[in-house]
From TrEMBL:
Superkingdom of the source species: Bacteria
Protein name: Ferredoxin
Taxonomy of the source species: Bacteria, Bacillati, Actinomycetota, Actinomycetes, Micromonosporales
Length: 70
Protein backbone atom coordinates (compact mmCIF):
# COMPACT_ATOMS: atom_id res chain seq x y z
CA UNK A 1 0.00 0.00 0.00
CA UNK A 2 1.19 3.50 -0.73
CA UNK A 3 -0.01 6.93 0.21
CA UNK A 4 -1.28 9.79 -1.88
CA UNK A 5 -1.45 13.42 -0.82
CA UNK A 6 -4.88 14.97 -1.32
CA UNK A 7 -5.33 18.75 -1.50
CA UNK A 8 -8.78 20.10 -0.68
CA UNK A 9 -8.80 23.12 -2.98
CA UNK A 10 -11.96 24.54 -1.38
CA UNK A 11 -10.24 24.69 2.04
CA UNK A 12 -6.77 25.83 0.87
CA UNK A 13 -6.02 29.53 1.27
CA UNK A 14 -2.50 29.53 -0.15
CA UNK A 15 -0.50 29.94 3.04
CA UNK A 16 2.39 27.99 1.45
CA UNK A 17 3.44 25.93 4.47
CA UNK A 18 3.00 22.65 2.59
CA UNK A 19 5.39 23.81 -0.13
CA UNK A 20 7.99 24.69 2.48
CA UNK A 21 7.65 21.30 4.19
CA UNK A 22 7.47 19.25 0.96
CA UNK A 23 9.61 21.07 -1.61
CA UNK A 24 10.40 17.73 -3.27
CA UNK A 25 6.71 17.27 -4.12
CA UNK A 26 5.17 20.74 -4.27
CA UNK A 27 5.93 24.07 -5.88
CA UNK A 28 4.04 27.19 -4.90
CA UNK A 29 2.39 29.47 -7.43
CA UNK A 30 2.62 33.26 -7.20
CA UNK A 31 -0.27 33.35 -4.69
CA UNK A 32 1.16 30.62 -2.42
CA UNK A 33 -1.08 27.77 -3.61
CA UNK A 34 0.60 24.35 -3.99
CA UNK A 35 1.26 22.84 -7.40
CA UNK A 36 2.27 19.18 -7.58
CA UNK A 37 5.63 18.65 -9.26
CA UNK A 38 5.00 15.10 -10.52
CA UNK A 39 1.81 13.77 -9.07
CA UNK A 40 0.79 13.34 -5.48
CA UNK A 41 1.92 9.78 -4.69
CA UNK A 42 4.10 10.07 -1.61
CA UNK A 43 7.46 8.27 -1.85
CA UNK A 44 8.29 6.25 1.26
CA UNK A 45 11.22 8.58 2.02
CA UNK A 46 8.84 11.56 2.20
CA UNK A 47 6.20 9.91 4.37
CA UNK A 48 7.35 11.75 7.52
CA UNK A 49 7.46 15.24 5.95
CA UNK A 50 4.09 14.56 4.27
CA UNK A 51 2.53 13.65 7.62
CA UNK A 52 4.04 16.78 9.14
CA UNK A 53 2.58 18.94 6.35
CA UNK A 54 -0.85 17.37 6.84
CA UNK A 55 -0.68 17.92 10.61
CA UNK A 56 0.48 21.53 10.35
CA UNK A 57 -1.79 22.74 7.55
CA UNK A 58 -3.60 25.73 9.11
CA UNK A 59 -6.73 25.14 7.01
CA UNK A 60 -6.67 21.31 7.23
CA UNK A 61 -6.63 21.27 3.44
CA UNK A 62 -4.27 18.30 3.19
CA UNK A 63 -4.79 14.64 3.97
CA UNK A 64 -3.10 11.37 3.16
CA UNK A 65 -5.07 8.66 1.41
CA UNK A 66 -4.05 5.04 1.18
CA UNK A 67 -3.70 3.66 -2.34
CA UNK A 68 -3.81 -0.01 -3.16
CA UNK A 69 -0.77 -1.14 -5.13
CA UNK A 70 -0.90 -4.05 -7.47
Amino acid sequence: MSERLHIDWTACRGRGLCGELLPEMLDLDEWGYPRPKQGLSVPRALSGPARQAVGLCPRQALRLQTEATS
